[in-house]
Amino acid sequence: MNAVVKTNFQFPKQKSLYVGKVRDVYNIDDKYMAMVVSDRISAFDVVLPKGIPYKGQVLNQIAAKFLDATQDIVPNWKLATPDPMVTVGLKCEGFRVEMIVRGYLAGSAWREYKAGARTLCGVQLPEGMIENQKFPTPIVTPTTKADEGHDENISKEEIIRTGLVAKEDYEQLEKYALALFQRGTEIAAAQGLILVDTKYEFGKRDGKIYLIDEIHTPDSSRYFYAEGYEERQAKGERQRQLSKEFVREWLMENGFQGKEGQQVPEMTDEIVNSITERYIELYEHITGEKFQKCEDCTDVAARIEKNVSAWLANN
């Protein structure tokens, strides 16, 4: 299968196209959003030069599954998945913050902690923690939502003080984010996994808050294998992860962290195929279901256009 790295469809009543790092979002008549999850892959806020076959299908189908599994907690934008790589849903006005929930001290939070930081986004962190240790209770560490470049850490107080999000709305977002994280934790535990941290995005439509974008995918979340977690912690060993972190680690080992003047290492076919295999493995572990490679993969772009146009014609 050829990876889908660029789309430029002309759907009926299409008003605009927003191209994100991974997703191409089509505004249909200011009523619907058709989100095409491409096979692009980003790390350190940089889109890598090659796409990863089946990655878009993996992410789209995981997100769709978990949007359905959490709609009793918060309404979400999803209406249908007319194609394995596409979700169509309600057009919402997105809040300018991402709600990051952390159950464990890992990733960028650990890197900051190791460097001496004891507050993160205004949240006080306990002394004496070690990498991948569980927090007493999950914490919310929001970031600003950047159209380009890096998202920036920000505190709840600053979000409210600057009017980025109204106080009442922000407090509701926090409640939703923690409830979603609790549900995600329970679902992960049933698959022998630990949900370490994740991000949620929310929007508003007609004065009502909706969960938008993706949820609990390996691009937006970090998972550990539960089996052996305690033993590895006790021995100071690295945890077995199910996340995109393996891509970041490969880049770092080859001298790339998205900094000025650094070059992305060569992505050989072998590397690309291994990333595809890891994403399929992620899908099967996270959902507990066998991944079904889409059969109609000769011209994926034509398939997407046909499937989405057919759905729009009937709605």
Please give a handful of descriptors for the protein shown.
315 residues; alpha+beta; eight-stranded antiparallel sheet; five-stranded antiparallel sheet; globular
Structural write-up:
This protein is of the alpha+beta class. Helix content is 32%, strand content 26%. Strands 8, 9, 12, 13, 14, 15, 16 and 17 form an 8-stranded antiparallel beta sheet that branches. Strands 1-2-3-7-6 form a 5-stranded antiparallel beta sheet. A hairpin with a 2-residue loop joins β6 (78-83) and β7. α1 packs parallel to α7 (269-287). It is globular. The model has no long low-confidence stretch (mean pLDDT 93).
Strand content: 25-35%
| Shape verdict | globular
Total of DSSP H or I helical runs spanning 4+ residues: 8
- Order of helices and strands, N to C? EEEEEHEEEEHEEEEHHEEEHEHHH
The description of the largest β-sheet is: 8 strands, antiparallel
Low-confidence stretches: none
**Rg, please?**
19 Å
Q: How many strands in all?
A: 17
What structural class should be given to the helix and strand makeup?
alpha+beta
Overall pLDDT score = 93
Which oligomeric form is depicted? single chain
Helix content: 25-40%
What distance separates the N and C termini? 30 Å
